[in-house]
Design a protein that fits this description.
Beta Polymerase, domain 2; Poly(a)-polymerase, middle domain; 9 helices; binds adenosine-5'-triphosphate; binds magnesium ion
Length: about 325
């Protein structure tokens, strides 16, 4: 009787994995879309190089970190050494160039916490945000992309988690839930913790890539092609990983005391960071350390209300995995 039940469960899990892989494949941008984006970026780069010598553009975020689903926006970082101009002025200048180039809906958000220009390409309809001198985002984009090259299960898990978070409306930092970047870090951390691990800790290995951004030294092992076998001892399927991911965040994570850290490949106590109490608007109700800007908790946007929303969603997801007969559908039901 017991054996029969286990076999049925295993079959359910296999079926769940097949369905999740179908969703994953559906979310991957087509080769045509990728090409359109590359072309758009190189044209934009050409325009900016011509009109603004000394300015350089970098792609960052989901269009460059391997975690972008189809029809994602493009995030671009403008890098200018000019110490005379403020970020707001740089954003204004960029907006002028874009308007002169006939881009649509050009908006310079100069008063935002992070000033950006938003616009839409008139030819392709691609939406783009340009921020200024945020090279840490360019570097953490490379870190995420390098992790994604080690084991395909990271990209699969992160696509599923991001898709779930969007369907359930818990990927909205302006409403106190988590950014896509935070979810990807949660996935990397989770795969570093599997037994045997599926991902290594690149920042604990001998660095082969080093760059200084302001005062922050970013260094890690980036020759990831040489460790592409790393996770091969672990045979966990996507269905098992998605199930355990939600179990972890619903029932096992110690929200009161623990910080998760991709940088160290583990966790440590909130005491070590003094993230135990509320300072200003930062409450540290769920703690996710940024891999390079280590004083930065990506959970700081979460407040008293949204932590409840988030944890309820983790419970819901974990319970669906335990009891629902069609989890691949119920999990993503719109909120
Ligand atoms: P989406 O597909 O939802 O647009 P995304 O990968 O672009 O996903 P975002 O959360 O929009 O993710 O972040 C874009 C990039 O900005 C990240 O890849 C990261 O480099 C950087 N970033 C975002 N939030 C932070 C943050 N709080 N601290 C540091 N860098 C961040
Ligand atoms: Mg983005």
């Amino acid at each position: 009787m017991h054996a029969k039940k286990v076999i049925r469960r295993r079959a359910d899990l296999e079926n769940f994995t097949i369905q999740l892989l179908e969703i994953y494949k559906f979310l991957i941008p087509s080769a045509e879309e990728e090409m359109k984006r590359r072309k758009f970026f190189s044209q934009l780069d050409g325009v900016v190089n011509k009109k603004w010598p000394g300015a350089k553009l970098f792609l960052y975020g989901s269009c460059a970190n391997a975690f972008g689903v189809r029809n994602s926006d493009i995030d671009v970082c403008l890098n200018v050494e000019d110490k005379q101009m403020s970020k707001a002025e740089l954003v204004m200048r960029m907006a002028e160039i874009l308007e002169a180039d006939n881009m649509q809906n050009v908006q310079a958000l100069t008063h935002a916490r992070v000033p950006i220009v938003k616009f839409t390409d008139s030819v392709t309809g691609i939406s783009c945000d340009i921020c200024v001198n945020n090279m840490l985002a360019v570097v953490n984009t490379k870190l995420l992309r390098d992790y994604a090259k080690i084991d395909v299960r990271l990209r699969q898990l992160a696509f599923i988690v991001k898709h779930w978070a969007k369907c359930r409306q818990v990927n909205e930092t302006y409403r106190g839930t988590l950014s896509s970047y935070a979810y990807v870090l949660m996935c990397i951390h989770f795969l570093q913790q599997r037994d045997p691990p599926i991902l290594p800790c690149l920042q604990e290995m001998q660095p082969t890539y080093r760059v200084k951004v302001g005062k922050i030294e970013c260094a890690y092992y980036d020759q990831v092609e040489s460790i592409s076998h790393f996770g091969s001892q672990n045979k966990d399927s996507l269905g098992e990983l998605v199930t355990s991911f939600f179990e972890y965040w619903a029932f096992q994570h110690n929200y009161n005391h623990v910080v998760i850290s991709v940088r160290t490949g583990g966790t440590f106590s909130k005491d070590e960071k003094d993230w135990t109490r509320r300072i200003g608007n930062e409450r540290h109700l769920i703690c996710i350390e940024d891999p390079f800007e280590i004083s930065h908790d990506l959970g700081r946007v979460v407040d008293k209300h949204s932590i409840r929303v988030l944890r309820d969603e983790f419970y819901r997801a974990a319970n669906i995995m335990r009891h629902d007969c069609n989890p691949a559908v119920t999990l993503f039901e719109p909120y």
